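$ ./design --mode recover --in tokens.txt
reading tokens...
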């Protein structure tokens, strides 16, 4: 790797006087007359028919204030007092906005107030709440993998351009299917492209090394927010975020120990994961839970309910994945999360049940020569982690849960797979679709190899076998959209590339329960 040249983004200012209120003590000082600023844009997430999580980061310790209105002019806005953006949360703040009208575009703005009541400038955003009762069209995007393989922000080449393409599609929200950061991959100042030219990254201190400290993980999230396209999209498109491996370390699992050749000074993955999760929950606009869970369900009116999985926190070690009986070594969702998913999907009355998985079902994802990283383990009957999938699919069939779609990313190309029980080794399920997308901004690889256990068939792939790896200098960055019509209740799925060119599309009519 070439030497990394660091750029300076400014110096922190000294602390407030001891006379400041308790909630402000220890905060950085500011120049006299200055007011608190929103430092990295605003964002929203986990939006339902009446609630939304709003997020922002201040440039110093201060209190979050939120105003919202159905009018873009903010005539007669409603104001809510948010929490203190404190050093303990890296000056990030989130507010759960309640009692919103359903099926409307909500305009909001966020500012921060200092200890003397001085209010900084407002930063505006907007979101669309879900319908309630009467069906309303639903349109959302999904993808994953941001700033992977050393591909950071090259402003001369347009920055993170896929985010701009998503914004131009004007979805109701974006499902970020994991790898929201690459904490385990530094961003170098320069990378050589196949044509001999250079990709020149914006670089920061925290992205000059692998992330081990809490400050490092926080800096990884801040890095993505330096991009203009990301901030503009966040202000208009709510983000429903998941995590996967690169938020911590490639292919990690709980209890893992790193050896001396790893380049890490912290050997225990659980400590890295705790720090990573704290930063993730601070910087992503996800709803807070007492147990800090990432798996959750979000209903978007009568047509759509989304089920977000966490395939990291409860898994057993990566292995050959061929165990014949379920147990701790075959855990992937884990017993509690699998039970929650089965019960929640069976209870859902939404027309379409969308499973948002941070890893694919039928693609082989290896971890070294003999271990596997995802569900699939090679052709044959369900074994290892596939036992959880068989358990779930059998349950959905028995409870007549229809219109199930799986959305995922992780493998750095786009694809559409149909899982056909007539072609499967395990047949106790109703046929369903899995749609793969990404990367948002990273290396492009693949296509991968499918495991025949659940009968997947490739209906579309954005890459051909033997194709050379690519990256964000090309159009081979991908996202998809799902559109559900209030009139027909059909779901239309479309794949796009970095520039917003349509690559493939299918319309799926709903099956009756």
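writing sequence...
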């Amino acid at each position: 790797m070439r030497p990394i040249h660091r750029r300076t983004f400014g110096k922190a200012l000294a602390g407030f006087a001891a006379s400041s209120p308790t909630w402000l003590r220890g905060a950085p000082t500011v120049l006299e007359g200055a007011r608190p600023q929103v430092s990295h844009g605003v964002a929203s997430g986990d939006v339902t028919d009446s609630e939304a999580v709003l997020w922002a980061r201040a440039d110093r310790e201060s209190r979050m204030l939120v105003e919202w209105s159905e009018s873009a002019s903010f005539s007669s806005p409603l104001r809510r007092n948010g929490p203190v953006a404190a050093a303990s949360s890296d000056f990030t703040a989130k507010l759960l906005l309640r009692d919103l009208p359903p099926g409307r575009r909500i305009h909001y703005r966020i500012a921060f107030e200092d200890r003397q009541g001085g209010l900084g400038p407002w930063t505006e955003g907007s979101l669309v709440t879900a319908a309630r009762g009467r069906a309303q069209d639903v349109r959302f995007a999904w993808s994953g993998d941001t700033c992977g393989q050393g591909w950071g922000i090259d402003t001369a080449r347009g920055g993170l351009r896929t985010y701009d393409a998503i914004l131009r599609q004007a979805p109701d929200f974006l499902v970020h299917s994991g790898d929201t950061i690459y904490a385990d991959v530094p961003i170098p100042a320069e990378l050589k492209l196949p044509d001999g030219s250079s990709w020149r990254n914006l670089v920061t201190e925290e992205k000059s090394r692998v992330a081990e400290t809490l400050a490092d993980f926080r800096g990884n999230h801040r890095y993505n927010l330096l991009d203009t396209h990301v901030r503009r999209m966040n202000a208009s498109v709510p983000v429903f975020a998941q995590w996967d491996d690169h938020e911590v370390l490639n292919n990690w699992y709980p209890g893992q120990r790193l050896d001396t050749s790893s380049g890490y000074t912290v050997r225990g993955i659980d400590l890295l994961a705790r720090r990573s999760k704290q930063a993730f929950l601070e910087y992503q606009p996800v709803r807070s839970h007492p147990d800090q869970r990432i798996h959750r369900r979000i209903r978007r009116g009568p047509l759509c309910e989304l089920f977000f999985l966490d395939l990291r926190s409860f898994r057993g070690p990566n292995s050959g994945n061929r165990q014949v009986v379920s147990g701790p070594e075959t855990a992937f969702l884990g017993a509690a999360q699998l039970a929650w998913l089965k019960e929640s999907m069976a209870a859902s009355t939404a027309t379409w049940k969308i499973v948002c998985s941070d890893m694919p079902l039928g693609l082989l994802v290896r971890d070294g020569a003999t271990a596997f990283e995802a569900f699939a383990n090679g052709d044959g009957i369900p074994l290892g982690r596939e036992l959880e999938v068989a358990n779930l699919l059998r349950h959905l069939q028995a409870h007549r849960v229809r219109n199930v779609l799986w959305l995922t990313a992780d493998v750095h190309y786009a694809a559409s797979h149909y899982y056909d029980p007539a072609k499967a080794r395990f047949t106790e399920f109703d046929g369903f679709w899995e749609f793969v997308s990404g990367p948002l901004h990273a290396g492009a690889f693949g296509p991968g190899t499918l495991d025949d256990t659940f009968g997947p068939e490739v209906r579309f792939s954005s890459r051909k076998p033997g194709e050379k790896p690519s990256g964000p200098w090309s159009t081979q960055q991908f996202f998809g959209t799902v559109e559900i019509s209030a009139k027909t209740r059909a779901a239309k799925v479309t794949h796009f590339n970095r520039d917003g060119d349509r690559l493939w599309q299918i319309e799926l009519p709903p099956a009756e329960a």
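exit 0
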